[in-house]
Structure formats: C-alpha cells, structure tokens
Design a protein that fits this description.
By secondary structure, this protein is α+β, with helices and mostly antiparallel strands. Helix content is 15%, strand content 23%.
Length: 256
C-alpha cells in the first residue's frame, strides 16, 4: 500500500487512547463474557436462555461447539441505555476454523420486546478478521435472521434505548466449531471521528495519535489499540482514506 511519506515520518510511535466507551480486549481475563445458545429464529427475550463460562487464552477468548447456536454473550457494561450508539458502529476481531460458507447472524441485539439480527457472509477461515456492524437501519432483521422484516430506524433506536443482550455469533458451521474472539468495541457518546483522546475536539494531540496508528497500518497489528479507533472508514487498516476523514474533522476542530 502506498503511503504519504510526509505523514509516516512526522512522529515516532505513541500509545493511542481508544475512543469507544466500552471495549473488551481480554488482556487479563474473560471480562465477564459468557457462552450462550439463543436461537436466531425468534426473540431472545422469549427463550429460556442458559449460559456457560467462556475460555480465556492469553489475550482473547475461545468458544467451541457448546449449543445448537453458539454465541459470545456480552457482560452488563455493554447493556442498558445505549441510545448514543445509534448510527455509529460496533466492531470486533474474530477467527473461525470451520464454516458452512453461508450467511448467518453475526450479531444479535436483544431488546425488551424483540431482537435484531445483523446478517453477514461467513468470515474467512483461519485468519483474524476485523468486522463491523452499523447500528442504524437497513442491515438488521427483526426476530428471525432469515425471514424477519428489515428493522426500521425507530426499532433500532428502541432496542438501543433498553439493550437487554448483546451476542456475537461464534458458530459458523453445522458441525464442529472453534472460534476466537478479541477486541470487542462498542461506541459511546464521547467519541467523534478524529477525536482519539476523547476531549471533544480534533486537534494536534489527536494528530500525533493518528500518525502512530497510521504507521502501524494494520488493525490486527498487536500494537494497535483495541477496536482500531483511527480506522474511521472501518476497512481494517489506518491509511490514506482515514487521513482524508481526519483532515475534515481537524479543520472543524470541535466535535458535533
């Protein structure tokens, strides 16, 4: 990938501050995540839901074939009134070892009266993949991942205002499964594109942090902060496309 050399040589590497409000990096443990088995053919809130402990392995969690449908279930800090997340993006890193090669519900958001399912193609096998889900209308189905109606903006806002469950699918195969999960990032109200230190402004201090991420490039680089917050266009890399977005925010200075 070609670089703008004037950016890449300006500053030595620094430590970035993540802009997402809630992030699980699994650095020291499972952080309250569990394994659950809801069926994405109906509202999760109407199902008798059981869960198991999740396996932590030196910086990420691993999930096997625990249920008919197996998911990583988020702890309480990801739940509640998440209205500020509307129209933003959540992200996570996943590595799967088995796949049917078809589309499944990668994420489930459980509300009080219905559940939303975000349907995507299978991730590639045996490689860490950075994935995102837009928390806005057009990509979510209501109560059934295959036949449910597409969710309206109002329905997504309703679920986010009282989020009862957040689930990330780890079962992409009808037989054996073994999936690793890392760097789950949920957006909050404190961030805007370019504001990498969370001070509600995009200024020189954010530029220093952006250059550090730009020099690393790959969101899966072990030195990249969880959630890859400088990847504004969510393509898995901090590159010239993100620099264009940063410049616009830098010129505006103050976050909306």
């Amino acid at each position: 990938m070609r670089r703008s050399s004037s950016i890449a040589t300006l500053v030595a590497l620094f430590t970035l501050s993540a802009s997402a409000d809630v992030i699980s990096t699994f650095t020291n443990g499972a952080e309250g995540w569990r394994v659950a088995g809801p069926d994405p053919g109906s509202h999760i809130g109407s199902q008798p839901l059981s869960s198991n402990p999740i396996t932590w392995t030196n910086g990420f969690v691993t999930v096997g074939d625990n249920f008919g449908w197996t998911w990583a279930m988020a702890p309480a800090q990801f739940l509640g009134n998440q209205s500020d997340a509307y129209a933003k993006q959540m992200s996570w890193d996943i590595l799967i070892r088995f796949s049917d090669g078809v589309s499944y519900p990668a994420v489930a958001l459980q509300g009080a009266t219905f559940t939303l399912y975000f349907v995507t193609p299978s991730p590639p096998l045996n490689a860490w993949t950075h994935r995102t889900a837009n928390l806005s209308g057009g990509d979510w189905r209501v109560n059934n991942y295959t036949s449910g109606a597409l969710a309206s903006q109002q329905q997504i806002q309703e679920v986010l205002s009282d989020l009862r469950g957040l689930f990330i699918l780890t079962e992409w195969n009808t037989g054996s499964d073994s999936t690793d999960l890392d760097n789950v990032a949920w957006p909050g109200s404190a961030s805007c594109d370019g504001d990498l230190n969370g001070d509600a402004a995009v200024d020189d201090s954010d530029f220093v942090l952006f250059v550090a991420a730009y020099n690393l490039l790959d969101c899966l680089d072990p030195s990249m902060p969880a959630g890859c917050p400088a990847d504004f266009n969510n393509d898995g890399a901090v590159d010239d496309g993100d620099f264009v977005i940063f410049v616009v925010a830098y010129n505006d200075l103050l976050c909306p």
